[in-house]
Amino acid sequence: MKNILIYGDGIIGKFSALVLSSYYKVYLVSKNQKSNKKYNQERFFSINLLTKFMLIKYGLWNHMHKERIFGYNKIITWHEYLSEDVIFNSSDISFDRLGYIVKEEDIIKSLDIQLESTDNIVVVNSNDAKLNEINPEFIIKSNLNKEDFLNYNKSHYESINYNQKAISMNLTCDHEINQVVALQRFDKDHIQGLLPISKNKYNLIWSAKSSVIDELTNSENREILEILNTNLSNRIGKIQKISSRVVYPLTGFNMRKYHFNNMILNGGAAHSIHPMAGLGLNMGIQDIYILNKSVENNDDTQKILQSYENECTYENTRFYKTINFLVKFYTDQKIPDMIQTKSLYLFNRNKLIKNKVIEIATGIHALKSQSKEEYCKPNC
Known about the structure:
- By secondary structure, this protein is α+β, with helices and mostly antiparallel strands.
- Helices cover 36% and strands 26% of the residues.
- It has helices at 11-20, 49-57, 104-116, 210-217, 221-236, 280-297, 301-331, 337-349, 351-362, 364-370, and strands spanning 3-7, 25-30, 44-47, 70-72, 74-79, 86-89, 99-103, 121-125, 138-141, 157-160, 164-173, 181-186, 190-198, 201-209, 239-242, 246-249, 252-255, 259-260, 263-265, 271-272.
């Protein structure tokens, strides 16, 4: 059995190891094995249908706390200065869910359980002398440091400066919420995404100009509550309290080249996009899905890696450009309200385009076009 090396022991690195262990002996390189169990207990992901398909296929779904998973069948988006909501329904593509909200810690714990019981996976420290003896068939890099960009030609990637940060927190409402509806509010300066995480709580990801988020970071809870209730109470009712806050900068880049000699990139080493659509983790899982299909369909390693690069550059460039366009469309004050309103009106009434967008965002398009196996219609 041939060897491969995977650098990066985050979710994408671990998931890559689990999937590829059916074909190779996998050496998963950890910077520090003691950090392997670390996770953010309050971080939530919105996973799409392709990601759930992969979690089920590789035995992770059974290890996750079902009572902490919330499936949603509708997304309602609105802009404060526009009259028309944009609504996405799972029934439009004949599925009962658009996605699921899961805790980061649940995904990591389920991965750790599966990795510990899977043959052909060896976790090694980045300083281990054994790395020089492995002679891998190919290498996967799943995370990217800032200094790594210095090693790439600028023609190998594109980047965007959002000039934004995001702040994440949990909101507790004074009543029971609709647990199958996700919400997103836009205005000219802010994007606020709301994911239901309990019978009366939302997880909020609030992105805005860096200066705005910096000001919020230094504000007292009562001041933030006042702003949030002004913005959201007409949609979700009164917010009683907020949790502690996590702030992080927003960066955007997309590799035009995923294949370098015998090394390929996936996950955070290949792309980073604005969180407005919650696609970051899902794009990384789709990378793994595409790589798995490339391994299944090709015998030659170079064909595997080239096929993977061709498919990923196409799919992820489409995601990257679409999300960046939407961020600009909804927040750029230079775009007249009339153009935004008319565009939303036409989009809402074009079922063909709208349903295609849903299929791409949920990963159903990738499953239909690449997988010959029967995929399930989730009914969590």
